């Protein structure tokens, strides 16, 4: 709700109670609603996919259509309920998930008047983005926030890395074009050669284009070896940021605990126990305190 839909919670009454179920996951009922909704979306996507399988669709056309219309009816009711319970319906309609909800309904109804609109129902897959609302629960919310912070902290490093990779594939593609275009029809243009460089660098290797000259094969070999390192770099960048954030979070938590203990001691004991004994622990056996030495 906080990320995809606008905050438009009713103040009180039955709308507020229904809102907590439909838009939030803080209650068992809200969590159950989201899980059932995601299951319904998955079933709908499966039905839409099966309709494109010719032999299966020919045998089960009626059943697939009935299931799809039942699910569309349920999704329509859900959409209307969301409009009714929010405080500002206009904000929900034009929010990201509000638009997705509406667009996922239209193809089924349009199929009554127009043909070839059934495939557009795959837009409904975007509604699976609501699964991220479940990640707002407890520990999942904390871990998700940590990962998001790591991604944000490493965005400039990743941008520089991707820019470097882009320059490499453009240069390699241009080299292969000049080496291969006269003897190899696959390298008919620089954009097509850049496509080959990307496929090779990412170690996908479709095999639809391959160099035949000695120079081209040498460059291809270097690009393949370089590709293995390319995969590890973004992982290392993000992994390092995650580790740094986790370390800083633990340090902050430990410092906060020490401050709370120190303040609690001053309130309860009126400062009779030194703060150093709380943070550093009690003195070892046989050691003397400053007051004892003065005595």
Automatic annotation (TrEMBL):
UniProtKB keywords: Ion channel, Ion transport, Membrane, Potassium, Potassium channel, Potassium transport, Transmembrane, Transmembrane helix, Transport
One Pfam family linked to the record: Ion_trans
Subcellular location: Membrane
UniProt-listed GO biological process terms: action potential
Membrane topology: Multi-pass membrane protein
Molecular function via GO: voltage-gated potassium channel activity
GO CC terms: voltage-gated potassium channel complex
Bilayer-spanning residue ranges: 31-54, 66-86, 92-114, 158-179, 218-244
Domain Ion transport residue range list: 32-241
Superkingdom, natural source: Bacteria
Stated name of the protein: Cyclic nucleotide-gated potassium channel
Species of provenance: Enhygromyxa salina
Lineage: Bacteria, Pseudomonadati, Myxococcota, Polyangia, Nannocystales
């Amino acid at each position: 709700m906080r990320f995809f839909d606008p905050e438009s919670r009713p103040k009180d009454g039955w709308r507020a109670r229904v809102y907590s179920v439909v838009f939030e996951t803080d209650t068992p009922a809200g969590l159950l609603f989201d899980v059932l909704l995601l299951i319904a979306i998955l079933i709908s996507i499966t039905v839409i996919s099966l309709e494109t399988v010719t032999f299966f669709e020919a045998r089960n056309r009626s059943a697939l259509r009935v299931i799809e219309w039942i699910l569309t009816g349920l999704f329509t009711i859900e959409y209307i309920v969301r409009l009714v319970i929010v405080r500002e319906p206009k904000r929900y309609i034009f929010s990201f998930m509000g638009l997705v909800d509406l667009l996922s309904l239209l193809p089924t109804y349009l199929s009554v008047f127009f043909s070839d609109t059934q495939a557009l129902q795959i837009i409904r897959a975007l509604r699976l983005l609501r699964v991220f609302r479940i990640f707002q629960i407890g520990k999942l919310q904390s871990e998700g926030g940590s990962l998001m912070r790591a991604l944000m902290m490493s965005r400039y490093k990743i941008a520089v890395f991707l820019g470097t990779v882009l320059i490499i594939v453009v240069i390699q593609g241009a080299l292969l074009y000049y080496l291969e275009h006269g003897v190899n029809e696959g390298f008919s243009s620089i954009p097509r050669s850049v496509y080959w460089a990307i496929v090779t660098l990412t170690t996908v290797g479709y095999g639809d284009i391959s160099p035949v000259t000695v120079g081209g094969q040498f460059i291809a070999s270097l690009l393949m070896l370089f590709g293995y390192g390319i995969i590890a770099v973004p992982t290392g960048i993000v992994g390092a940021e995650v580790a740094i954030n986790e370390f800083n979070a633990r340090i902050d938590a430990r410092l906060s605990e020490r401050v709370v203990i120190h303040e609690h001691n001053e309130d309860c004991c009126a400062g009779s126990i030194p703060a150093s004994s709380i943070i550093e622990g009690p003195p070892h056996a046989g050691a003397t305190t400053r007051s004892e030495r003065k005595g």
